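Per-residue structure
===
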Amino acid sequence: MLQARQVSAPSWQTSPVQPKTFPVKRTQTRRGIRKVQLLFIAITCFTLSLMVIAQYSYLVVLNQRISRVRAFVEEIQETSLVLEREAAELSSISRIDFLARHELGMIEPAVNQFRVLAANQGD
């Protein structure tokens, strides 16, 4: 009977407890997949941030161009106003009369210096 008891003894008394082991390959593939996912997310975030920065820098360049063009338009408008005033001064009747009398020596004609010519309609 002694032998029967040894054979029928519970397994926990005779064999040491062994920890449950997981397959190494499965956890390594999960870790690898997780790393790839994190790398993809990081690259995507980096690319998106570069796109945002590029858009803002393009916006800054466009604002600089707009301000330069506005300044150029204002300068042209000022030049146009100056030229319009100058043209008005040069074409004024009083200035033309002054130049004719003093620089060119012209005088107003007398009444007897006028001649009326009639055109012949028959000839």
